[in-house]
């Protein structure tokens, strides 16, 4: 849906390094089949760009554990278990994840799989049961010393995270990513932003760092509001293809520069990778396997 989306390992590596140079402290990464652009969990594809990113920047590498439609737990964990990264994303529950309304916005697609993928989301549940989450926390967290970006699509996910904190399967400081604007999750409304912060404060006190992301047209205005309420922010072409109304972002780095241009005049500091590592108590880049 955008010619600027990085597809090949080379494109992903270059855009990741450029985003870090623009000021991103954390790089959240997925992989794609370089021929078709389809999401892939193949660790061999990840290993074509992870070492290059590590060589090109000191930013924190954050690999998805979400994968995509039809992937098993072993598929989803194959790349993180091989790479042993400092940080991985972890969705804190099962949920409907509807992307099919985009079928009404586009008349043509580059690949045959794309409209089928969107339509399949009408009858698809992203599965992360309590057992699934336990497995990820044990195999990747305790097994590799990896910490997590806990992706919370509604307040119920905050309570799920609190459950695992009570069981000591996760340890502070927690990195809580509140996500808004996905069909099936919490809507991008001011009331939801403030409520999510109140619940997180109630459950975690001073034991967490909060971040906000929002999908599509909500990205820039909503995360700006989040930052004004004390949140860290996440931008990127995974969440929005645009850098302003009707204008496609030419890269992930452009979105990083854009949000910096909004936040810095408001006297909001941008963390360096070293500062982010200290905030999140990460194991360090030297203790990864790529």
From TrEMBL:
The organism sits in which domain of life? Bacteria
Q: Which Pfam families match?
A: BKACE
Q: Does the keyword section mention Membrane?
A: no
Q: Does the keyword Transferase apply?
A: yes
Q: Which cofactor does it need?
A: Zn(2+)
Gene Ontology molecular functions: 3-keto-5-aminohexanoate cleavage activity; metal ion binding
Entries under InterPro entries matching the protein: Aldolase_TIM, BKACE
Name the keywords, alphabetized. Answer: Metal-binding, Transferase, Zinc
Q: What is this protein called?
A: 3-keto-5-aminohexanoate cleavage protein
Q: What is the lineage of its organism?
A: Bacteria, Pseudomonadati, Pseudomonadota, Alphaproteobacteria, Sphingomonadales
């Amino acid at each position: 849906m955008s010619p600027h989306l990085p597809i090949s390992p080379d494109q992903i590596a270059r855009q990741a390094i450029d985003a870090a140079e623009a000021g991103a402290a954390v790089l959240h990464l997925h992989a794609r089949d370089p021929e078709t652009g389809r999401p892939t969990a193949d660790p061999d594809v990840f290993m074509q760009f992870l070492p290059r990113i590590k060589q090109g920047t000191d930013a924190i590498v954050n690999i998805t554990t979400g994968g995509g439609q039809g992937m098993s737990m072993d598929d989803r964990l194959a790349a993180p278990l091989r790479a042993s990264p400092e940080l991985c994303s972890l969705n804190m529950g099962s949920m409907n994840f509807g992307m099919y309304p985009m079928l009404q916005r586009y008349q043509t697609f580059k690949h045959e799989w794309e409209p089928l993928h969107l339509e399949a989301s009408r009858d698809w549940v992203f599965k992360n049961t309590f057992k699934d989450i336990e497995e990820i926390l044990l195999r990747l967290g305790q097994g590799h010393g990896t910490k997590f970006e806990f992706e919370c699509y509604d307040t119920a996910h905050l309570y799920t995270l609190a459950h695992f904190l009570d069981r000591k399967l996760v340890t502070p400081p927690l990195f809580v990513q509140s996500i808004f604007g996905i069909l099936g999750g919490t809507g991008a409304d001011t009331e939801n932003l403030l409520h999510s912060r109140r619940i997180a404060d109630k459950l975690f006190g001073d034991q967490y760092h909060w971040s906000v992301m929002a999908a599509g047209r909500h990205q820039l205005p909503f995360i700006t509001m989040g930052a004004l309420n004390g949140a860290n922010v996440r931008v990127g072409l995974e969440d929005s293809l645009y850098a302003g109304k009707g204008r496609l972002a030419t890269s992930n780095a452009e979105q990083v520069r854009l949000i910096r241009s909004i936040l810095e005049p408001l006297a909001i500091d941008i963390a360096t990778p070293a500062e982010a590592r200290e905030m999140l108590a990460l194991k360090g880049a030297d203790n990864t396997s790529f």
